[in-house]
Amino acid sequence: MKCYKVVRYNKRSAVVTKRAAVRYSTSCYVSAPEFLRLKGRHLSAFKTLEAARDYVNARRYLIYAADGREKVRRRPILSPYGISDGEFYEGMMDNWPDGTVFFKRIKLIKRIK
């Protein structure tokens, strides 16, 4: 499914850090770390380019057109303190932004300028 992935300049996760972080690729599909997958936590992306741009706003992130496989219907629960097995960057929000979708695997396709 076509989606839009927000990443840092090094193609790492824009939302989580430490062992919860993922390095995305344009050459292969990636998944969340196993300890998160076992808890039902998968990779997030946005349905539309507009939703990705709304999230990025003034942050220094990149947006890629991406392909998501194995869509996950249940949205992971966010606690105000972040994922217990990793840390959210920038204090993160209490809820997932509008337009967020979840996949078991994501591959970056092309950087959006």
How many domains?
1
Count of DSSP helices?
2
User: In angstroms, what separates the terminal alpha carbons?
Assistant: 21 Å
* Main sheet record: 4 strands, antiparallel
Q: Which structural class should the secondary elements be placed in?
A: mainly beta
**Largest beta sheet: strand ordering:** 1-3-4-2
Query: What sequence of helices (H) and strands (E) makes up the elements?
Result: EHEHEE
Q: How many beta strands in the DSSP annotation?
A: 4
Question: How is this fold's topology laid out?
Answer:
Layout lengths: L1 E6 L26 H4 L5 E4 L2 H8 L5 E11 L27 E13 L1
Can you describe this structure in just a few lines?
The chain has about 110 residues and is mainly beta. Helices cover about 10% and strands about 30% of the residues. It has helices at about 35, 50-55; strands spanning about 1-5, 45, 60-70, 100-110.
List the defining traits of the structure above.
113 residues, mainly beta, four-stranded antiparallel β-sheet, 4 strands, globular
Question: What would you note in describing this structure?
Answer:
- Mean pLDDT is 80; it is low at 79-92.
- By secondary structure, the chain is mostly beta strands.
- 11% of the residues lie in helices and 30% in strands.
- The chain has helices spanning 34-37, 49-56, and strands spanning 2-7, 43-46, 62-72, 100-112.
- The chain has one domain.
